[in-house]
Amino acid sequence: MLNDIEIARKAKLKKIVDVTASLGILDNEIELYGKYKAKIKDSLFDRLKNKKNGKLILVTAVNPTPAGEGKTTVSIGLSQALNILGKSSVLSLREPSLGPVFGIKGGATGGGRSQILPMDEINLHFTGDIHAMTSANNLICAVLDNHLYWGNDLSIDPKRVLIKRCLDINDRALRYVSIGCKGSTNNVERQESFMITVASEIMAVMCLASDLKDLRRRLENILVAYSKDDEPIFLSDLRIVGSVLALLKDAFKPNLVQTLEGTPAIVHGGPFANIAHGCSSLKATRLALKLSDYCVTEAGFGAELGAEKFFNIKCRTGSLNPDAVVLTVTVRAVKYNGGILELGELKKEDMDALERGVCNLGKHIGNLKLFGVPIVVAINKFYTDTEKEIDFLRSFCEKLNVECSVVDVHSKGGNGGLDLAKIVCHLTEREQTKFQYLYDLDKSIEEKIEIISKKIYGASSVNYTDSAVTSLKNIKKLKTAEKLPVCIAKTQYSFSDNKDLLGEPKNFDVTVSEIKASLGAGFIIAYMGDIVTMPGLSRSPCAEVIDVDDYGEIVGLS
Q: How does DSSP classify residue 141?
């Protein structure tokens, strides 16, 4: 059996100019990055701004196993299937982060016969967007520390610097570091902590800005520190917004690639859903809606994270109205939530574990119904699944009166998702979406956190550490901060803030450990449990198997 990169290498790609031509995009509306990648200019947005939007389809998932459940693969396969049915479809997906690529999960370009290509380039440097964001973020940090060195005219409190340096590699050694250590240069010594680039506010700003003017405004509003007199210091105070914008202007243009079957895919932005808002850029999604009948997009990790943030943050920010949601589930994820934690054991039939863990699927279905969007469950089939296990999940969905489809897009491509595509078309044509947000922005920050925690997670109560209480008091002094939506950062493996509470936990509390105002991004981040913004590598990371052969071809990437 061929692995993902071998399948990708055998594929015959269309030239990207042929893909753009099929979408009616003019040559002067793109910038070529070789034969198979292009960036889309703002002139296309201007030309299409009055065109009617297509249907917006969100693909989300249950709480995953550490290996992931193929949500991106399902998204790609669904979009390919819609095109086979004669419905024009364009994907809007996130860019892979090098952290997971070299970590435990590997790449994020789909798998098997449902991949976006060229997969090796997309998974690695792609068009340099994330590198640009890393540079922009670290320029801010360098200028701030330089300001401290040259007399600190803004009276910045070195102990209250909020902006953190970033790197797009999992490196736990950088979680806590000392910088500016005393020497002949007399730097200001202080404690620093790196975060992974995809968790940075620069990433969130890039993904939620509508145009360059809005991007500039959001950059200006980034809260970088507090003064010794307890006054907020914004990026605009450092007088480098223009330089930061210069580093980001090309990265702000969405990237166009294609799937293995030639379906157009706009791949742009890559925030994680467990520590950020988990959706591809608003700009990319808006463009896909203008270019097709169906825009298929995804939100990271489980629906209690990615989908909740997609609805309450991205849709609210961009005035988007989703038409249907696809909830991806796998037999192994349900068994994992039923207590089978060894990945090797998940391959064995275990009906008892399925019965114990299916409550996780049921809770996600109930949560999604709160948003008023039609739901279809996609059972992403693995070769180890038995018919008895598949039938159990199908029967469970029928009891909840929810549409269900078994998909095999990994081995069959778009043809393996035709039934799902037909259901999606039927739902969007038959049902009028009654989309609604979970909470009103006029509620307090605490009320928003409580609503998400109790309604979506099922928590009994919300606790706050002393540090979180102090942060909250400072945030409430900031103009408009209380009117922002909330982005909760917590483990992706559980509805709770404890990764070991699987299934549908009951009678638990959640603890807010810290609160941060991301005023540029336009949301408040509430950190729960021991969530970290700089992941670490596993004992045997994917970095150990990736290589380059004698012909210059990358091998071992999946």
A: H
Question: Per the structure block, which two tokens stand in for 132?
Answer: 């640009």
Write out the residue range of the structural domain in which residue 487 sits: 445-528
Q: What CATH number has the domain bearing residue 513?
A: 3.10.410.10
Q: Are 383 and 52 in contact (CB under 8 A)?
A: no
Q: To which residue do tokens 């480098």 refer? A: 240
Same domain, 272 and 377: yes
Any idea what the CATH number is for the domain that residue 96 is in?
3.40.50.300
Q: Give the other-Cβ count within 10 Å of 346's Cβ.
A: 22
Q: Is 52 exposed, middle or buried (0-12, 13-18, 19+ CB in 10 A)?
A: exposed
SS3 185: coil
Quote the number of domains for the chain: 3
pLDDT 10s digits, 43-80? 999 999 999 999 999 999 999 988 788 999 999 999 99
Enclosing H/E stretch for 8: helix 4-10
Beta carbons of 37 and 257 less than 8 angstroms apart: yes
Does 344 lie in the same domain as 262? yes
pLDDT, one tens digit per residue, over 178-220 is 998 877 667 888 999 999 999 999 999 999 999 999 999 999 9
